[in-house]
Write a structure and sequence with these properties.
By secondary structure, the chain is α+β, with helices and mostly antiparallel strands. The protein has ten helices and ten strands. The chain has a four-stranded mixed sheet with strand order 1-10-6-4. Strands 5, 7, 8 and 9 form a four-stranded antiparallel sheet that branches. Strands 2-3 form a two-stranded antiparallel ribbon. Helix 6 crosses helix 8. The chain is globular. The two termini are 38 Å apart. The mean pLDDT is 90.
């Protein structure tokens, strides 16, 4: 389900985050109240949908997880030649066999995404991806929502996704969200700078024995998936970005590049 909350001022943001955690951040499981993990994503317009770069790049195509993994692996030689870094990706006979074996044993759950670290690396470098990026920090999400929006009209949106605790009744649900971001991943540094997590929405196609990469529209209608959309006017951008800069959340701290350093200096010297 999707809930919307509108606030008029950035000063209301902290209180709003606390409120939605209290209202939606728990689930009754086996007679006990369990706390849910929550992840945040910022968008520069409240009219934008939760959509992946892959769906925007190839809106007419539908990929399975297995097909997309093969596409990524086909890029690896050229990427390794240019970067001179060897990802040591396993051969098809190993990773594909393992994936298909798990799919047959657990058809409704993606047990392991093949060479996940390479998925994350390519996603951070701009290759169209089915992974939707989130942050464990609502403030990092807010930065990406407000960045470059200072002189524009309208609203930004910050989504909060509360990951449900799976119960026995969910075990054969064909439409699912898989949260990704296990500790210990060795991938792009921005993954850690931005406190990144990712979601993969997919549908189990049992007749054809595959996981089909899906969008998020049908998941908004399901009670077990809770999304809260916080809407804030773009006119609050300077107040928001100043507050975040004072807490060391800025372009340079999150992107760590020469370009991001200059953007941060420009904001500090020309805007604040």
């Amino acid at each position: 389900m999707l809930k919307e909350i509108k606030i008029d001022k950035w000063s209301e943001f902290n209180e709003t985050i606390d409120k939605i955690k209290n209202d939606y951040g728990f689930q009754e499981v086996g007679g006990s109240r369990r706390k849910l993990e929550v992840y945040y994503r910022g968008l520069p317009s409240d009219n934008y949908k939760l959509s992946t770069t892959l769906s925007r790049y190839s809106p007419q195509k539908v990929y399975s997880v297995l097909e997309y993994a093969h596409i990524l692996k086909s890029c690896s030689s050229e990427i390794e030649s240019f970067t001179r870094y060897n990802w040591n990706l396993p051969g098809d006979d190993k990773w594909e066999t393992e994936y298909i074996t798990n799919l047959k044993k657990y058809p409704y759950a993606i047990i392991k995404i093949p060479f996940l670290e390479f998925w994350i690396y390519t996603r951070h470098h701009g290759f169209p991806s089915p992974l939707l990026d989130w942050s464990a920090s609502p403030y990092i999400a807010a930065f990406f929502a407000f960045e470059d929006q200072l002189t524009k009209a309208g609203n930004i949106a910050i989504y909060a996704y509360f990951e449900p605790i799976e119960t026995s009744s969910d075990s054969d649900n064909p439409s699912r969200i898989r949260i990704i971001g296990e500790p210990g991943l060795r991938t792009h540094e921005r993954h850690y700078l931005q406190q990144s997590w990712y979601t993969l929405a997919y549908l189990t196609d049992e007749p054809n024995n595959k996981h089909v990469i899906s969008d998020y529209n049908n998941l908004f209608l399901k009670e077990e998936y809770v999304f809260v959309k916080i809407i804030i006017p773009k006119s609050q951008g300077i107040q928001a970005l100043t507050y975040l800069h004072e807490h060391n959340i800025n372009n340079f701290s999150l992107m760590h590049s020469e370009e991001s350093l200059l953007k941060t200096m420009a904001f500090k010297l020309l805007t604040i």
